[in-house]
Amino acid sequence: MTRLEAKYPGENEYLQAVREVLESVEEVYNQHPEFEQARIVERMVEPDRIFTFRVTWVDDRGQVQTNLGYRVQFNSAIGPYKGGLRFHRAVTPSMLKFLGFEQTFKNALTTLPMGGAKGGSDFDPAGKSDAEIMRFCQAFMYELWQCIGPDQDIPAGDVGVGGREIGYLYGMYKKLAREYNTGVLTGKGGTWGGSVLRPEATGFGALYFTQHLLHKAGKDIAGQRVAISGFGNVAWGAATKALQLGAKVVAISGPDGVCAIPDGITPEMIDYMLEMRASNRNRVEDMADKFPGKTVFTAGKKAWSVPCDIALPCAFQNELALEDAQELKANGCWCCCEVSNMGCRPEAIHFFQQGGILFAPGKAVNAGGVATSGLEMTQNAQHISWSGKEVDEKLHYIMESIHHQCVQYGTRPDGSVDYVKGANIAGFMKVARAMLEQGII
Ligand code: GLU
């Protein structure tokens, strides 16, 4: 860590993600001298390669715009590079390195053979027209296409990249590569190679994981009050499944504030979340305007200010700080399943764990998204498509298996489970062993 901090000063998200994993695996690592001899940690914390490129496009006013694009191919020990693309104004190499690093362990947990990658751009989709989004995606793919391929590196969505963006990206890839294998991207439309349930998968998988965690703790999700941050694709899937399982979603939030929903979210509100995302306005207050009387909007507040039993961060890294964790506990919250990647600050996680609040990390909880991307790749390779029932069953099985791995590696002497340790050790052991078996490369 000391060497990395000196080498990459200021790459805070990346250093935070690495520190968490190294702290978790230290004891196990020291029991395996063969890992140390092959310098597994030193090799694992560095990405295999990073592509950086300029993306120039023309906006609706005819002005030329320039952004930066990246693809971080982090680790291919257990399969081809796999991970999403993030379009957000705050994207930096540090952010994508943290995400690619996390993705490597998350993908290892899915039981499927996928390596880790992440990419994206500092392009800000907020306020952009559909035509601008299309031109940007085309310009981005004009550079990216040579770095990816269905057996090599398979991007998908992440923050700011959903079905619409994947469509524009795929259209341009096909034109440039003259290759018609749909497996090069996942999260595609249902009529052209996309897997049924992929849009829902991150949120659905998160709730399946939460169910297993609650079951192990002798509790049930039905009737629990759930606070969700964000209103994008992940929050939408989580709210949908929470409602189906009989929970009450009492809050959703956005960069502008929080919408408390005292009687619980309704299917109409969940449908409206999709319209809010498609509008690119990035405002959760629109929900309060659409459903007056049923929702209470408070500007500048987070979802964590609304009393709940279960907190589900579904928005962005470090969105839940120590003071939020304290507020949640004071308001009666007893469980937090992190759905966003690294959604909680380390101090908040520490507070949860010390205070007896059930906590599970994003790389376990949100792995259903990339797992279903893996299922999409399988369907594409076989030129078939599975039914919703088949995909849902497989997703269920995968989430159960991830929970099992966390319990296997994270059970404390008193029988409780340290899910952070469990997820990190399980992912690490799989990647480390694969690297060792493949020699010094
Ligand atoms: N962006 C998602 C994640 O963080 C999904 C990646 C994928 O489907 O490749 O895992």
Describe the SSE topology.
Layout: H1 2-7, H2 12-30, H3 33-37, H4 40-44, E1 49-58, E2 64-75, E3 81-87, H5 93-109, E4 116-121, H6 130-144, E5 153-156, H7 163-177, H8 198-216, E6 225-228, H9 233-244, E7 248-254, E8 257-260, H10 267-278, H11 285-290, E9 296-299, E10 310-312, H12 322-330, E11 335-337, H13 346-354, E12 358-360, H14 362-365, H15 367-382, H16 388-410, H17 419-437
Parallel strand pairs: 3-4, 3-5, 6-7, 6-10, 10-11, 11-12
Antiparallel strand pairs: 1-2, 2-4, 7-8, 8-9
Helix pairs in contact: 2-5, 2-17, 5-17, 6-7, 8-9, 8-15, 8-16, 9-10, 12-13, 15-16, 16-17
Bound molecules: glutamic acid.
What this model shows, in words?
With 441 residues, the protein is α/β, with parallel strands linked by helices. The chain has two domains: 2-181, Rossmann fold (3-Layer(aba) Sandwich), CATH 3.40.50; 199-360, Rossmann fold (3-Layer(aba) Sandwich). Helix content is 48%, strand content 15%. The chain has helices spanning 2-7, 12-30, 33-37, 40-44, 93-109, 130-144, 163-177, 198-216, 233-244, 267-278, 285-290, 322-330, 346-354, 362-365, 367-382, 388-410, 419-437; strands at residues 49-58, 64-75, 81-87, 116-121, 153-156, 225-228, 248-254, 257-260, 296-299, 310-312, 335-337, 358-360. The protein has a seven-stranded mixed beta sheet, with helices on both faces. Helix 13 (346-354) links the parallel strand 11 and strand 12 (358-360). Helix 9 (233-244) runs antiparallel to helix 10. The longest helix is centred in the C-terminal third of the chain and has 23 residues, at 388-410. The two termini are 22 Å apart. Glutamic acid (GLU) is lined by residues 82-84, 103, 156, 158, 186, 341, 369-370, 373. Residues 82-84, 103, 156, 158, 186, 341, 369-370, 373 line the site of glutamic acid.
